[in-house]
């Protein structure tokens, strides 16, 4: 393809593109790349195409050995394109309507366009002088998100994933209570404890570990049968910590738990936090998108009373990975806690409004532009487009629940759901579960992993499984892809029944 335009050799490589003053090589290479990507996107939306072509790690390494090794000499652009094809061939098609394995699924074309433009611009988000358009866009999008929470004088920042956003929440809580820790460290602070639901995300433990609070000082609060934090237990555990001369710092409430999709009761938790003078952080990484829906924003009733919130648009809003925001009610906290004032970068005598120099609000120096793709999607869909998209997820979830109830070999973990998480068992006829003994549960625990292995080998569908407390392994489907139709959900149930014949 390229050899007929190479002037010096038969090898057309990236060095030739850099030296090509006409731009012909670059255009031809990019056109071929776009054609390759378009073919991949088309296959993602074909129900007849596989979700994945699974191979065990040692097998895949052997299959791709010819293109995995990094050599000393440059490769031709033909070989580079071949590497791209080979890579995509063995990728999991996360935009496929039958990929239901994670909370972030689907593939938005406008979002992809935003990601491509972001890469071409290759801009660092730390100062306005380097990223003038993108820092303005970030401010506009964050203001929009803050408005949905009900914070009209707050602040925020895009962070590399929900775990880091949760870290920012805990970091801000500690700084407001102990501002000198920034300078003198954690010595002589005693035991600082944080409280979170037993079904919250593990990133809360990681944040405590990284901040020197310690995992042992993360106190898990019991949940009810629907996965919601028990507020009476929370209050009791806070009182006990005070009696033990510990300092209760923060409560992490979850809006949209990873497994059951439960929404903790924010109003009641906010009452407790006010009673004991504690920071309330809300992990709305999954469920935050429900704020965009008039029908379902009630799930986050009381969110305006929180002090900080994590919201991941790459989940319910369908933005390409990654896209996560940490949002705070009080303006100025992020700068106060993180500022170090590197004079080579954050000059105080600049000729423009330096409030748009956001880098010193971050624990990072360089920060990726995660906002543009979201802004472009929001511009294209509008508020109403996102509202309809999220309402669709809840409608499809209720449909799937109703279909599961019709099939005798399927059993729901929760009969009534809040979020678009549907959890269920497939129970083969060979397994009988009684209240007298748990032998049946022991056998049932092996069913979901066995079916998952079969579905990955076949490649037609992909859903995840997990245990929870004393419950044996069960499947979880989280609906966050607007391309999903009712027929796709019917196919998933039918395919599980078909795969179960091989057990």
Report on the structure:
The structure is a single chain. This protein is of the alpha/beta class. It has a domain at 3-93: Alpha-Beta Complex (Aspartate Aminotransferase, domain 1), CATH 3.90.1150.170. Helices cover 41% and strands 13% of the residues. It has 17 helices and 12 strands. The protein has helices at 14-19, 24-44, 57-63, 65-68, 77-89, 109-121, 132-149, 162-177, 181-184, 203-210, 231-243, 266-276, 333-338, 372-405, 439-444, 447-458, 486-500, and strands at residues 99-100, 155-159, 192-197, 218-221, 247-254, 279-284, 308-311, 324-328, 410-412, 421-426, 462-468, 471-478. The strands form 2 sheets. The protein has a 7-stranded mixed sheet with strand order 2-8-7-6-5-3-4, sandwiched between helices. A 5-stranded mixed sheet has the order 1-11-12-10-9. Helix 10 links the parallel strand 3 and strand 4. Helix 8 packs across helix 10 and helix 14 (372-405) packs across helix 17 (486-500). It starts with 13 loop residues before the first helix and ends with a helix. GO terms for molecular function: glutamate decarboxylase activity; pyridoxal phosphate binding. It holds the Pfam family Pyridoxal_deC. One of its GO terms (cellular component) is cytoplasm. The modification N6-(pyridoxal phosphate)lysine is found at residue 315. Its EC number is 4.1.1.15.
